[in-house]
Write a structure and sequence with these properties.
By secondary structure, the chain is an all-alpha fold. Helix content is 89%, strand content 0%. It contains nine helices and no strands. Helix 3 (42-64) packs parallel to helix 7, helix 6 (86-109) packs parallel to helix 8 and helix 7 packs antiparallel against helix 8 (135-163).
């Protein structure tokens, strides 16, 4: 009986050792995959974060810039300030639906094309908003700009998750969030 127990313990220890080895190998493979941006170098990582940060800054700035000028917009288009406030909802509202619909496609097709399309759409329709001749036209243009803006933030965060190793991800996310905060802080006084 003692020989059988010793044999069973030996088999169990071998299984545990094999399991630990397998876990170490998986961890090494995962770390190898996640280390790719590090190989590109710190300069490229900073450049990428700056670009992602600038995109998210622009998206948030395009949203907050409306708040301080709502009374002027209301006076120019002959609507109440409350009605003019709908322009903020027009920009932010479509993002909820757009993010849910586009998320699975960006997972499959890649984040870059959605970031570019979002930045282009947001930029063009924000500029066109300045040329709006009616409140209704301004509302629609802001909504389309909001759809573009809503493509930026979730894809930017997902891209950081895709490209940065776990240990660097927190710092990368904080940098992006810092750009968002700057947009909120700078946006209102500049407007």
């Amino acid at each position: 009986a003692a020989d059988q127990q010793a044999a069973d313990r030996g088999v169990a220890e071998e299984r545990q050792a094999a399991h630990r080895t397998e876990l170490r190998e998986r961890r090494a493979e995962r770390e190898e995959r996640n280390a790719r941006p590090r190989r590109e170098g710190a300069r490229e990582s900073r450049l990428l974060l700056s670009l992602i940060g600038a995109l998210t800054f622009a998206s948030v700035y395009a949203f907050v810039v409306m708040a301080p000028v709502l009374t002027q917009i209301a006076a120019e288009f002959g609507v109440s300030t409350g009605t003019a406030g709908l322009l903020a909802a027009a920009y932010g509202g479509p993002g909820v639906v757009t993010s849910l619909l586009v998320g699975p496609y960006s997972d499959r097709l890649g984040r870059r094309r959605f970031l570019i399309a979002g930045a282009f759409t947001m930029g063009v329709f924000t500029l066109l908003s300045a040329l709006a001749t009616t409140f209704e036209m301004l509302f629609v243009l802001r909504a389309v700009a909001g759809i573009g803006g809503s493509l930026i933030f979730p894809n930017a965060n997902a891209l950081i998750g895709d490209l940065f190793p776990y240990r660097e991800r927190g710092r990368a996310m904080s940098t992006t969030i810092g750009f968002n905060t700057m947009a909120s802080v700078i946006g209102v006084p500049v407007a």
